[in-house]
């Protein structure tokens, strides 16, 4: 039983079979049976997973080539790339792209630093070790909509406590309207997102920290390295893989942001993300064609980010091993 | 960072832990506080203490509103829908994923890596991109605003997650036990059923919890693919209205939030270590 969970799928489980004549035929039967059983066991899950995601995306690509409004199905007609052209020419689309990137960068950067601090504390703390880990995990289990409402009401002028608590801060008084402008709204949206998803980030980073050989850190300390030197020269380089995985997971997750924006502003003051914009086009305006084009564009952005990360990730992996 | 940390761990970390704990708990306490505020306390800061945080007078009227009052028509069916949809999606995913992950961890067959890569890719899929086509198709074939109409798309959230986490769990199982059973004459299938299933049960259970959390959290599918009959709790919260149209639904929303949060917090308190293992297992390679 290995201490570190490893998804080494290439591992083959050769059973020690005595290399005697007469056993060979039995072995090949057996491996063929194993192969069949493998596919039969894996197939249902794989097929359903591909069907429930593959079908909608293909349908979305198809729909995106049509001018198609649900309330006016008679008028559905093929327009090829015209939906994409309209979206790419429209400032609203680029505003949503900008907001999505803005929120993604803010939340991922803040969560990385916050997550790193929390992971280090969880790694080293003695007294209340279990309690801390349990408490830190709780926001992960909270419904995002609940988190959104909690932060929304906390910053409201009528029901909230934030304006009362922080009235000593210049610029904040009991009547400060956080949701009346772009930056105030983005601030609260990001806070809720950070509160809810930092636990996931810090747990991934903690798993990376736990894999570092402590003797290396001790050796650096004996050699007179300062805390900062140990952090930047020993700890961070040795958990690069875990950091990249955590950043990739969170970036792709943050890029889909929808719940917090929908609950708090509904996209007011230019705070629509790509997901919110797609939702409004599809569900509110029932513009299936345009909504599908936006969905495909969002999908392409996610692919692009994943591609960049995977490329960077591979470079890092090789760099860390050489 | 001027503090020299002691390898044994000193009180420094306990002190840094305090703001972390406060930061995590305040929104939870705030949710509870709001749910306990009556109309008066919600409208008037003077009826509260700690800077409009906690009510001077605890009121249960919000809980009455969602369980027996005007909002019960909205909340109780939503709670039922949420439980049915999330449990169904979880059970289907975990059962299918158990077979799949066993095959990946244990058997030698081509395509293992492809399955895991697909699972990872699907879990990064922007949910809203699936909503647009489903919204159209579901309306045409009568799955819009139905329980199955939610369970099917939920599988796209829960299946890849279950496969990914379970495959990681299963690769940690001591497989010698299975070989021992096979040496004793058990077939591959018998070895799976009689030996591996009991060994794997904790991992399966943990995967089920994490999968359930994910389904329980969904908002995008729930508001897009339902109207009122199949609406789940997160979607219902967004459509809460006050007792009259002049009243804010704040208290009712927060009371409902507390009700749906308590069970998941209990799960976290009970199974913290396993959930952490499950969340990190698939993501961190050695």
From TrEMBL, chain A:
Bias-annotated ranges (Basic and acidic residues): 8-21
ABC transmembrane type-1 domain segment(s): 97-309
Membrane topology: Multi-pass membrane protein
Major localization class: membrane
Superkingdom field: Bacteria
Residue ranges, annotated region (Disordered): 1-29
Residue ranges of the TM segments: 37-58, 92-122, 134-155, 182-210, 291-313
Keyword Transmembrane: yes
UniProt-annotated location(s): Cell membrane
UniProt keyword Metal-binding, yes or no: no
GO cellular component: plasma membrane
Coiled coil: none
Keywords on record: Cell membrane, Membrane, Transmembrane, Transmembrane helix, Transport
GO biological process: transmembrane transport
Family from the record: Belongs to the binding-protein-dependent transport system permease family.
UniProt-recorded name of the protein: ABC transporter permease
UniProtKB/TrEMBL annotation, chain B:
InterPro entries: BP-dep_ABC_trans_perm (IPR050901), MetI-like (IPR000515), MetI-like_sf (IPR035906)
Family: Belongs to the binding-protein-dependent transport system permease family.
Keyword Acyltransferase: no
Superkingdom to which the source organism belongs: Bacteria
Cellular location(s): Cell membrane
Bilayer topology annotation: Multi-pass membrane protein
Membrane-spanning segments: 12-33, 82-104, 116-135, 147-170, 195-216, 252-271
Domain ABC transmembrane type-1, residue spans: 79-271
Pfam annotation, one family: BPD_transp_1
Protein name in the entry: Sugar ABC transporter permease
GO-annotated cellular components: plasma membrane
Species of origin: Intrasporangium chromatireducens Q5-1
Keyword Transport: yes
Major location category of this protein: membrane
Keywords in alphabetical order: Cell membrane, Membrane, Transmembrane, Transmembrane helix, Transport
GO biological process: transmembrane transport
């Amino acid at each position: 039983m290995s201490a570190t969970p490893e998804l080494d799928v290439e591992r083959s489980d050769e059973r020690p079979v005595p290399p005697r004549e007469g056993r060979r035929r039995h072995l090949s039967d057996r491996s063929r049976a194993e192969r069949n059983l493998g596919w039969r066991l894996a197939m249902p899950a794989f097929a359903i997973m591909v069907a429930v995601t593959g079908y909608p995306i293909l349908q979305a690509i198809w729909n995106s080539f049509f001018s198609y409004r649900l309330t006016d199905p008679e008028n559905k007609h093929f327009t090829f790339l015209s939906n994409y052209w309209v979206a790419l020419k429209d400032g609203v689309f680029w505003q949503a792209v900008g907001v999505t990137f803005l929120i993604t960068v803010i939340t991922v950067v803040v969560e990385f630093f916050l997550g790193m601090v929390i992971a280090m504390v969880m790694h080293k703390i003695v007294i209340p070790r279990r309690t801390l880990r349990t408490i830190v995990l709780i926001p992960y289990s909270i419904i995002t909509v609940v988190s959104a409402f909690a932060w929304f009401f906390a910053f409201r002028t009528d029901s909230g406590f934030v304006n009362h608590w922080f009235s000593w801060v210049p610029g904040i008084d009991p009547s400060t309207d956080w949701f009346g402008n772009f930056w105030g709204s983005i601030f609260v949206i990001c806070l809720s997102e950070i509160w809810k998803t930092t636990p996931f980030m810090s747990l991934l980073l903690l798993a990376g920290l736990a894999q570092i050989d402590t003797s290396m850190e001790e050796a650096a300390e004996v050699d007179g390295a300062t805390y900062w030197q140990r952090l930047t020269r020993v700890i961070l380089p040795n958990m690069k893989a875990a950091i990249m995985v955590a950043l990739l997971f969170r970036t792709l997750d943050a890029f889909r942001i929808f719940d917090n924006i929908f609950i708090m502003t509904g996209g007011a003051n230019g705070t629509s993300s790509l997901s919110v914009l797609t939702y409004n086009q599809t569900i509110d305006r029932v513009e299936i064609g345009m909504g599908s084009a936006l969905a495909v564009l969002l999908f392409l952005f996610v692919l692009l980010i994943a591609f960049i990360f995977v490329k960077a990730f591979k470079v890092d992996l090789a760099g860390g091993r050489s | 960072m001027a503090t020299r940390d002691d390898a044994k761990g000193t009180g420094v970390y306990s002190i840094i832990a305090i703001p972390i704990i406060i930061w995590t708990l305040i929104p939870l306490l705030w949710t509870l506080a709001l749910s306990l505020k009556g109309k008066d306390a919600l409208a008037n800061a003077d009826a509260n203490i700690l800077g409009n945080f906690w009510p001077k007078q605890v009121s249960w009227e919000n809980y009455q509103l969602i369980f027996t009052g005007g909002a019960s028509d909205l909340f109780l069916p939503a709670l039922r829908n949420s439980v049915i949809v999330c449990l169904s999606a979880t059970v289907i995913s975990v059962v299918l994923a158990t077979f799949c992950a066993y095959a990946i961890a244990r058997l030698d067959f081509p395509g293992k890596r492809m399955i895991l890569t697909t699972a990872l890719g699907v879990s990064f899929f922007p949910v809203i991109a699936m909503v647009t086509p489903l919204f159209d198709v579901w309306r045409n074939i009568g799955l819009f605003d139905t329980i199955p109409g939610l369970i099917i798309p939920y599988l796209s959230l829960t299946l890849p997650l279950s496969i990914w986490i379970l495959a990681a769990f299963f690769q940690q199982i001591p497989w010698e036990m299975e070989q021992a059973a096979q040496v004793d004459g058990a077939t591959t299938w018998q070895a799976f059923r009689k030996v591996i299933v009991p060994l794997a049960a904790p991992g399966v259970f943990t995967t089920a919890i994490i999968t359930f959390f994910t389904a329980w959290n969904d908002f995008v599918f729930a508001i897009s693919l339902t109207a009122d009959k199949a609406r789940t709790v997160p979607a219902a919260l967004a459509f809460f209205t006050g007792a009259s149209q002049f009243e804010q639904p704040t208290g009712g929303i927060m009371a409902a939030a507390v009700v749906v949060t308590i069970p998941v917090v209990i799960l976290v308190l009970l199974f913290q270590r396993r959930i952490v293992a499950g969340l990190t297992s698939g993501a961190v390679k050695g």
